[in-house]
Amino acid sequence: MADCLEMEMKVSTLKQSVKQILIKKQHKKYQKEVAAGNLTYDQWIRQQEEKDGVDTSFSVAEEKSLTNDLIKILFESTKIKNEGKNAKLDEKCRILSMTQTGGHSLTKELVLLCSKEFLEQQMNENSKVFLQSLHDLKADVIFMKMEEGEIAPRAFFLCSRKLREQEGIVLVYGDEDEKGEKIRQNPWFKPDWSPDSFLSAYYLGGVLALRTESLSGIVAGSGWYQLLKEVIEKAGGFEKHSALSDGKEVWDTQEGCPVCHIRQILFHRSGKITAGVGNTKEEDHGEEEKLPMVSVIIPSKDNPEILLNCIRSFTERTQAGIPYEFLVVDNGSSKENRERIEKELRQICGSKARYLYEPMPFNFSRMCNRGAELAEGELLLFLNDDMEIIQPDWLELLSRKAVLPYAGAVGAKLLYPESHIIQHAGITNLRVGPAHKLQYLDDEQVYYFGQNRGVHDMIGVTAACLLVKKEVFVKAGGFYEGLAVAFNDVDLCYRIYELGYYNIQRNDVCLYHHESLSRGKDGESREKQLRLLKEKDILYERHQELYGQDPFYHPYLTTDMLESGYSPAFHYQVDLRQAWSEPKEVTEAVKRAREDSCLVVGMECAMDIYKWKYGVASSKGRKKALPEDEGFYFQGYSFIIGADNACYEKKLLLRSQESGKVYALSVENRYRKDIRDNLKDQLNVDLTGFTAKLQSGGLAKGVYQFGMLAQDRCSRQRLVNFSSWVIEI
């Protein structure tokens, strides 16, 4: 007996030793994969700049350094000569020559380089004389160095070329990063020209180029910011942009815009980039105008408590002075609820409310359009019945923006009830679909150079709270009724943008959103999932030129993950060159595995590869599919709570909804910085991202539910769990 116990102890000890050896081996392998996937920004940006292949057949040389005496002469007489009375160089203002050779031609430009401090001083002392001197100066371009740091050599060439090639451009700016002794870090990838972002906070950055002749006729007050504002305003920067038309793409040229964003790093700051953070000096052009009436349109059914709480918060907490009316559109509440709503609406609002009772199948778009048809206000406010007003001046702030000639849809920042957690801070058009920016993040912190502060132009805002001029709404065709539940607000915003208007996100306006109390969450069932996928396809069929494009979201930021932050793309490396996964039936093996919700399965993308690469296209505009496009691409994340994730091997599961059979696909791990940062209490979750490819014909046609099978390589333990995500093959 004793011998048996001793033997068992030895076996147990041996097993533990072997297990520890296996764990160490897995950790070593895991860390190697993490190192390969965790590309640094410095490595990545140098690779990108090498790919860009900027022509460097140019040189920049100092032609004249202005002495203190020369500066005085320059701004008193416009003569450019150095009398040699003061040999001390003033580094705040220099004249440079830029030369580019191309074949037998030679172009030479004079460039004035001056600092923000120098501009500020001259504008404050005598702006009229200063501006006239700049205009008379025989320099083609004025480069303004606005921060401490280093101008990238390519900046002179790229900016000057852009100004030469496109006469309508008056100002050029670019992206920037921080440059230490050894590495570059903390990049600021900016949006294309955003008039409201500029009015809210200076975001143009460390260096910008100004066409000298644009200063002609400018009568600026004091300050460099006012100077830039007047130059931009005179050139039409606070007007509608060029409308999109069929077959017309403006993304690379920013056609018709007087302010051009070069989507490359043009400046390296010597210190931490903080510009734009916390600056809320909002300037609305329509501050003195009397605001028109607002028609508040609220779709609702069988939610009297929620609806009436929304209206009470509106009437009790909205500051007086703005005329408004309510139009409640009810698509078929019960008799009891209908009577209650009618009665209490009269008590709360009196003649300001109209109750439109029209039984019909739920169609958010149709209900909103019906309310808009009967609205008497110049402004239309679409408001979910589960909204709660918490800020007295919210309606005035939204209206001040909505009345501007260039303004399209105007939205507010939405928070989860009784919290600082963000539900919505604008919509971004990612390649995987539209995404609420900064969702689930704490608004007590500042994100991506003040993106949750102030006012910003976005490609879309949510119709949970959306204010728009009635004339713009009508011109855009209203809500598309073919999108009954999802993406109807996105579709409207996309259409408004295509007409040339700017959609505006006011993050200085906050409301509580009791999200999905009225209709439930998307993705809870197979039916909702299939409906959601179909409606997303409809969205991109209607806006084919916008697939994967967003002028207010830099292409160097990640677009391939359904991520709410503003993460540089180097964190997420998508590679469609990976091998095809061969499906293997594992129905019985899955039955033997332990089903456990500690195995988290998050799906972000499940679509055919053609759609992933090119978007949903009509047969007319459809590109020819290549052999490598004939299949499906799957992407998501998965981790085991409370376990050492480095030790698990994972297989993506697809369970047929018709036969019940389960198939496994091999996956490739992907580095996920967002998972690692958000799950600091979990072990080895760096490689929780996964991708897989399935060839067409690999599985029978039908609807499949996604899941994950995870096996501990050291203990052989198997876990299984399924998500609500489905795909129709």
If you had to describe this structure to a student in words, what would you say it looks like?
It is a single chain. With 729 residues, the chain is of the alpha+beta class. It contains 17 helices and 31 strands. It folds into 3 domains: 50-269, no CATH class; 294-546, Spore Coat Polysaccharide Biosynthesis Protein SpsA, Chain A (Alpha-Beta Complex); 572-728, no CATH class. A hairpin with a 2-residue loop joins strand 2 and strand 3. The chain is globular, with a radius of gyration of 30 Å. The strands form 5 sheets. Strands 10, 11, 12, 13, 14, 15, 16, 19, 20 and 21 form a 10-stranded mixed sheet that branches. Strands 1, 2, 3, 4, 5, 6, 7, 8 and 9 form a 9-stranded mixed sheet that branches. A 6-stranded mixed sheet has the order 22-27-26-30-31-23.
Q: What do we call the CATH topology of the largest domain?
A: Spore Coat Polysaccharide Biosynthesis Protein SpsA, Chain A
Computed over alpha carbons, the radius of gyration is 30 Å
CATH architecture of the largest domain: Alpha-Beta Complex
Helix count, DSSP H or I runs of 4 or more residues: 17
Report the helical percentage: 25-40%
Give the class from helix and strand content and strand pairing: alpha+beta
Let me know the number of strands: 31
Whole-number total of structural domains: 3
Strand content: 25-35%
